Amino acid sequence: MIGYVVDRRRSLAIGAILVTAVLQVALASAGEPVTAENAWIPWAPPAIKVHAGYMTVVNRSDVDQVIVGAHSPAYERVELHQSTVKDGLSQMRAVDEVVVPAHGRVAFEPAGLHLMLIGAKRASVVDGPVPIVLRLRGVEQVAVTAVIRRRDGGPSSGHHHHGASH
Ligand SMILES: [Cu+2]
Questions:
Q1: 12 CA to centre of ligand 1 in angstroms
Q2: Long-range pairs, 126-131, Cβ under 8 A, ≥24
């Protein structure tokens, strides 16, 4: 009897997940004005609690969109950062907002703009998905699923490992 109840709960939960997935696909195909592509997070050892997040944000709408923040259930907080090289030293600073021009795109990439993911709540696992939400000015939010990768497997590393593509 207990087993039945548990199984029934599980099938209800799976049903809810499937409904959510179908809704997300429906929303995406309806033409989201802003999407994030190729989102990834370099893998870091468990002692490292601050990670970077990279992606390309695409704006298909006719107006500029402004990213004003981000959050993730996997981190205590998320900041928008810009890396710069000053006097030969790499530095980074928090920025309040990032403008994605109408029909344009903005790359968050190593040595440039990035999400600073602060206070990891769990160890990072290669290939593990990490949900992130970008907040746009207004009411819009962009749901992103980033994938954890070895840094040398990243799309912008400049290395080309044939046969090891993800
Ligand atoms: Cu940073």
A1: 40
A2: 126/43, 126/150, 127/166, 130/41, 130/53, 130/72, 130/74, 131/72, 131/73, 131/74
